[in-house]
Write a structure and sequence with these properties.
With about 150 residues, the protein is an alpha/beta fold. It has a single domain, classed as Ribose 5-phosphate Isomerase B, Chain: A. The chain has six helices and five strands; from the N terminus they run E-H-E-H-E-H-E-H-E-H-H. Helix 4 links the parallel strand 4 and strand 5. The longest helix has 15 residues. The termini are far apart. Bound molecules: D-ribose.
């Protein structure tokens, strides 16, 4: 599957603001060809992560060749919320290997990160790997189809 990422929607709550700023800077310096759209909060005032999970997810579903990045304190709340939306496969990744496999095997369309859990340099590697890795298809495709069937059934 040769699909290049053209747009990234990035969202965060108050606990993910610093990592979001850092990653936007990284993406602007290293991926000029990718449009980065910030839909997260730019404030440290306490807010609710599901609002941003929903905003990023709906944009990712609407825009072909886009992926999402969601950042909260742990990445857990964002991943739970985003995965409630049909068609979203949000993966909470904590190293480059999980980022690579989330794309190759699970065709994840949203990367979730926990600012309070991982270091910023590691987050950069994770994002880099997530962008560069493609879905392998083949036997994994059938499993994605089964996930879609679960979404339809329940
Ligand atoms: C906010 O304090 C925190 O609960 C949130 O950012 C996230 O970690 C939830 O999963």
């Amino acid at each position: 599957m040769n699909k290049k990422v053209k747009k990234i929607f990035i969202g965060n709550d108050h606990a993910g603001k610093d990592l979001k700023d850092f990653l936007i800077n990284f993406l602007k310096n290293n991926y000029q060809e990718i449009e980065v759209i910030n839909v997260g909060t730019d404030s440290y005032e306490s807010c609710d992560y599901p609002d941003y999970a929903k905003e990023v997810s709906l944009n990712v579903l609407k825009e072909e060749d886009s992926i999402g990045i969601l950042i909260c304190g742990t990445g857990i709340g964002m991943s739970i919320a985003a995965n409630k939306i049909k068609g979203i496969r949000a993966a909470l990744c904590y190293n480059s290997t999980t980022a690579k496999l989330a794309r190759q095997h699970n065709n994840a369309n949203i990367l979730c990160l926990g600012q309070r859990i991982i270091g910023f340099e590691l987050a950069k590697d994770i994002v880099d790997t997530f962008i560069k890795t493609e879905f392998e298809g083949n036997r994994h495709l059938n499993r994605i189809i089964k996930i879609t069937q679960i979404e339809e059934e329940y």
